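Lecture 7 notes: from sequence to structure.

We start with a single chain of 260 residues. Read the sequence below before looking at the structure.
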Amino acid sequence: MPAAFKPATPGAYLSDQVADAMAAEIRAGRLEAGDKLPTEATLVEQFSVSRTVVREALSRLKSLSLVESRQGSGVYVKEIGFSPLNFDVKSSVSRQAVIQMVELRRALEAEVAALAAQRRNEADLKRIRKSITLLDQAVRAGGDGVDEDVQYHRAIAEAARNPFLISTLEYLGQFLRGATRVTRANEARRADFARQVLDEHALIVSAIEAGDAEAARRAATSHMDNAIARIEQADPAFWQQTGVELASALVASKPKRLPD
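Now the structure, written as tokens:
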């Protein structure tokens, strides 16, 4: 067990910072199955956050099936029984690589949105609405909104309450974030693109709020389809400059071909 966690960085998503730090220790094996987590009071002191933040972080770890509460005893690390496929993906700077990553997102996000519509509670809806507000604020302040966009989709994923889907999304996070940087950079170049994204996000949230799984699935699928269309409409100058630079963050080559 680590001697101490580093204090969280002031700003938004403190509970996510705390949860991510503990999840990293668990996945690295420094916190093993059966280990007891530090007490709430200790975590509050180490991360320099409130008890509410710590409790939200622990709740997220439970939703990921990384920890479990034992009544009267504390919170313990669970046996990790699932590991997503070990994709051997390397980088590509091509437009096609970004489109392929969005296609992967489409398959995952559609199901995540549908499950979220079926399983969300008021706390989930509050978190999703907050993520939309923070995304809008980031864009208005001149930011690229990448982190906020990722948090928006993550809030929806957590409402789906499927640890296998969530673990897969987290495993693929570095690739999905890279693709998001490209799509958002392209969308920021045109006001009509930016407006479309806002409207698409609103449709997904509206369907989840209404508990309409099919509408949520359609809205999420349409959002990814439109993201691909916007990439396909990007002007050549974008790919000669910003697009290529951002896409290069995706790993080094295509996946190896599966044996026949």
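The radius of gyration is 19 Å. Keep this in mind for problem set 3.
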